Amino acid sequence: HPGYSKILTSTGGFVLQAESETVGSNIxxxxxxxxxxxxxxxxxxxSKTKEGFSYFxxxxxxxxxxALNKPTTMSSEAYGGPASRGVDGNNHNSWVANGCFHxxxxxxxxxxxxxxVDLGSYQPIExxxxxxxxxxxxxxxxxxxxxxxxTGALLHKCGVNETFTETDTFKDFSCRHYNASKVRIxxxxxxxxxxxxxxxxxxxxxxSG
Length: 209
Prior knowledge:
The radius of gyration is 19 Å and the shape is globular. The chain is built from no helices and 12 strands. Mean pLDDT is 78; it is low at 1-45 and 47-60. The chain starts with a strand and ends in a 6-residue tail after the last strand. It has strands at 4-7, 18-23, 26-31, 42-50, 53-60, 62-65, 72-74, 114-131, 143-148, 154-162, 171-187, 197-203. By secondary structure, it is an all-beta fold. A hairpin with a 2-residue loop joins strand 4 (42-50) and strand 5 (53-60).
């Protein structure tokens, strides 16, 4: 309805989902609502309370997907699923949509299949969003998200032993704006490894909105 907009909000200042009304330069939270696929990511700072509502100064928390079409590598390629599919912008969760990468199974006891994107420079990474297949085989996944230096040294882990169900169209992993130039995802299962898209968002504080 006129004068209202949907924003993201949660505890700790990051927006998850809410309906809001703009009041001057502030945001008045009106009603929280669930959302299936939040794409606009914001950070809010509480400023005052009036008439039972909380008012917020709204600031942009994330910029665009900085992994889109960046160079990718992976441990192996199987069934015509190249690493580049992980950042091609096609986040459809089905193999037949030709948007998922696919590896072989690594049979060595101490080795695991992995996929990696090179961001080209150090970036303050806030969020990694992962789109699994939902048409098959989510039980093959137990992933670890690693932030790496430009030489491949491990700097930080955003998720460890993360699993999926066939109803998970995507999952978000907070990286707390650690600076890194590469993102690697390791499948800790001795299984084929496939994901349909990986999005990487960096922290951006652009001031009041």
